[in-house]
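## retry 2 of 3
previous attempt timed out at serialization; input unchanged, resubmitting
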Amino acid sequence: MNLRESARAAANTIAERLASPQDVRGLHHRQGWWPQSLAHGAAGVALLHIERARTGQGPWQRAHDWLACAAAEHAVGGPDSHLYYGAPALAFALHAAADRPGRYARALDTLDRCVTTAILDRLAQAHARMDRGRMPALAEFDVLRGLSGMGGLLLHRDVHTDVLREILTYLVRLTDPVEHDGELLPGWWSHLAPSGRTSPQFPQGHANNGVAHGIGGPLAVLSLAARRGITVDGHLDAIARILGWLGQWQQDGPAGPWWPYWITREQLRSGTTGPRPARPSWCYGTAGLARAQQLAALALDDRARQQAAECALLRAMTYPGQLGATVDVSLCHGFAGLAHITQLAAADAIIPGLAECLPRLLAPITDTTPEMLADSLIAPPGGTDIGLLEGAAGTALALHSLQTATPSASGWDTCLLTN
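## retry succeeded, writing output
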């Protein structure tokens, strides 16, 4: 069985195990039962069945059943909502399922009003925070909970471009350096720890370099918007400032170029970081940041920077010291995510070799039987996350994308801001 056939068999088996909500509702889910969650719940599983239905590999009824489960209760809005939970997550999933004009139009219109209200409230709070000279929480601007993720949603939905421009304007302002306690810091410096809480280990906060939680997310959405021709004043300068920061903190060694997950105030003062790279995942590490920088280079038409980003990804995907730190198969920080990012980057690449990495990256997923893989992902006590980021649906979607070897029909992966 070749790689595509193995990927198809594994994706099919996982999809069968996630055929309906009642099949898995009673499992002891590690994150609890959150139907409106893309990350861990029914909205994320719906994306799997939507993509399969839109490519003719699964029935629409399964997608409808999971969407109904996700939307069974009143959509969560306001400060508790974000791209991965509540009204924005439901809007993302319904848009993915809208395979013809007008489908779900009424529901999407209602959700859009809820989403734009939440965005405008957050923008007002963010600008007020900046006006007071305060530092941001990561959840203000990141992909998973913040305005970068909301910007990615509006960009994908192709609606409310005026609100999207307000998000982009905020992200541009976020990149302006700020002075604090006599030191010049990047505007995204947070007073909190990477956990999003205060911590004695980060007494003066940190600058987060991740895609999921740090400045990699704003870089990605600014770059994707620029590629679509949607820009605001200072847009390209903001991209350049983020790239300059990443260039300043790029580390080089046997593993190739890599970036620390975050920079503390002590590291900022000393100019030094840890001795070796950590796991090269989407959420943190070389894979996600290399793709974000590739997208930025494409937006800027900078072939030298594009080649450098692609070389960094290639080294990370071939160096055992980086791959050895990857211990699961998830989309967020496992081999499914590495394979999907590599596949996307290879499609845009100007250097050879990235596509040839895929068999090695998928081996930890496809070197077992589809049934054993599905058990490990879904069956308790270990595999009890069904969702997109760390669960079975995300792994199956990455496998589906590999076997089709085409861009996603539903745009499911745009919630990662990698495409």
